[in-house]
Design brief:
heterodimer, A: 140 residues, mainly beta, five-stranded antiparallel sheet, three-stranded antiparallel sheet, 1 helix, 35% strand, globular, B: 374 residues, alpha/beta, 12 helices
Chain lengths: 140, 374
């Protein structure tokens, strides 16, 4: 059996993020008191220290902020997948997510590349937010 | 004020290897014994032990082996391996406050034959906690996250792969003078570097630290007690720690926030420093730390290293003079703390002439110590 990368283990502090993804939406935590977006989810707003949260649907559009390409398969799950790229996407609303690109070869990735979210179901409980090259001209 | 009232009285290490053939506890005890002998201080005087949380040798086990019946000061500092200077700060604070007299900072790790950082065996969290947002996407080891940081900072500061390579070449030159170093007899040219394979882009093989089995220890006590042994001592001019924030910019290191406190405490400026050790888990962080501590301007670290500025032989500010984590050993800051003491005592294999102030960072901003020749 092929080894897999670790799946996210949801916690009470981030369950809603993962639930939204299974429903096909990328929702990010926002402080209900001061309106500051934050990711990854946390109990407290580091800006105003409120515990009140709401969840806001993102446009799903963003740009590549940074990226790496793993060549040495440090984890068994990567043995048949190297070179394997991991990127940080900066959403147009501001928050950054660590993720993967589904349709871009590692050599094609550049900082600033426009991308948009796609949803990849990994299990009944977990859907991963991945990204692909942006389709429209509205980004860039 | 801590200034020069506490000293590192002795240092000790085991051999560095890929397979020590002995327990991590044995490695730690052998290093402690060597450090106490170096300090001229009996184990009977030890009343404090501090250590890395990630290590396996608990204070109680070390105390039992040393025959210590009570500890006035003990404790651990977490994160990963990058907290050596923070441990020195903790030990120095205890001595300065009069809470302990002789505190030993120690570690023994089978970092190559046992649990390997490079495979995530120390830091991996199986997708739990904040790792739920990184590990499922292939950020599995420290090098993945640090490569991500490096790529963005290269973009921001125009740091080049060749400049990063010159960090490795510089350190290898120092290791070639140090018989303890893993790469003592293995030269490295910039061409070798640029032709070496990528491990995690943008890190080529020789941008990555070693994985090492070994032990190291430091003996701290009052400067007065340290000098009573008649051995050369390294006085702690300043010591500071800095926990990092959850939201990383991927541009700054925490040295940006640590540096002003450290320089103020020391009453010194970067230009006063004679020799530097920087936590080089990955080569570009030498460049970034030189910038963020203020040794050079932002964006000037790469050109500084590329032009030979960090070389012992002719450089303006020699850096990682034992070979560092890239070429001597990877004891997560411990071997660099030891080297910083040797520089302050005039005992390095790449000794900077008349070095008065010896600087050591053990985590690119998690902590730093400035030693003064005593």
């Amino acid at each position: 059996m092929m080894a897999e990368l670790p799946l996210p283990v949801p916690s009470p502090d981030n369950q809603e993020f993962w639930d939204a993804l299974t429903e096909g939406e990328l929702r990010i935590q926002r402080c209900a008191a001061c309106g500051t977006l934050r990711h990854p989810p946390r109990p407290m707003c580091a800006h105003c220290r409120s515990f009140d949260v709401e969840w806001v649907r993102m446009s799903g559009r963003g740009t590549v902020f940074s990226y790496i390409v793993t060549h040495q398969p440090i984890h068994p799950a990567l043995v048949d997948r190297v070179p394997f790229a991991t990127v940080i996407v900066e959403l147009e609303e501001g928050p950054r997510l660590t993720t993967n690109l589904v349709d871009v070869s590692p050599a094609e990735i550049t900082i600033g590349m426009p991308v948009e979210v796609v949803f990849q179901r990994a299990s009944d409980e977990i859907t991963l937010p991945l990204f692909r090259r942006a389709s429209g001209a509205r980004v860039g | 004020m801590l200034r020069n009232q506490v000293a590192i009285a002795g240092v000790g290490e085991t051999d560095y290897s890929r397979d020590s053939g002995r327990s991590e506890l044995t490695l730690a005890l052998q290093a402690i014994q060597a450090a106490l002998a170096d300090a001229g201080i009996s184990a009977d005087e030890v009343d404090g032990l501090v250590r890395w949380t990630v290590d396996t040798s608990a204070e109680a086990e070390v105390a039992a082996n040393l025959g210590l019946t009570s500890l006035s000061w003990f404790g651990e500092i977490s994160q990963a391996g990058n907290v050596g200077a923070a441990l020195v700060t903790s030990a120095a604070a205890a001595i300065h406050a009069g809470l302990a007299n002789v505190v030993v900072v120690y570690r023994g790790v089978n970092g190559r034959s046992g649990r390997r950082y490079g495979r995530g065996e120390v830091t991996g969290r199986a997708g739990q906690g904040s790792a739920a947002f990184s590990e499922p996407f292939g950020v599995l080891t420290p090098q993945h996250g640090l490569a991500m940081h490096t790529r963005r900072r290269m973009h921001e500061t125009s740091t080049t792969e060749r400049q990063i390579g010159m960090v490795a070449v510089t350190e290898r030159g120092h290791a070639n003078r140090n018989p303890r170093a893993t790469f003592y007899d293995r030269p490295l040219t910039i061409e070798d570097y640029m032709e070496s394979r990528y491990v995690v882009e943008p890190f080529r093989l020789f941008a990555c630290c070693l994985e090492t089995d070994g032990g190291g220890a430091l003996v701290l006590t009052s400067t007065e007690r340290a000098k009573a042994s008649g051995r050369p001592v390294a006085m702690i001019r300043a010591a500071a720690m800095c926990g990092y924030a959850a939201d990383r910019s991927y541009i700054d290191t925490s040295a940006v926030t640590l540096a002003p406190r450290l320089w103020e405490q020391a009453g010194l400026a970067p230009s006063d420093i004679d020799v530097v050790q920087i936590y080089d888990h990955f080569a570009p962080f030498v460049i970034f730390a030189l910038e963020d501590y203020g040794f050079v301007e932002r964006g000037e670290g790469g050109p500084f290293v590329e032009s030979g500025g960090a070389m012992w032989d002719g450089g303006a500010l020699p850096v990682n003079t034992s070979g560092g984590h890239l070429s001597e050993a990877y004891l997560q800051g411990m071997n660099q703390l030891i080297e910083s003491v040797r520089q302050a005592r005039g005992e390095s294999t790449a000794q900077v002439d008349n070095a008065q102030f010896s600087f050591v960072d053990t985590g690119v901003g998690t902590g730093a110590v400035i030693l003064e020749r005593g």
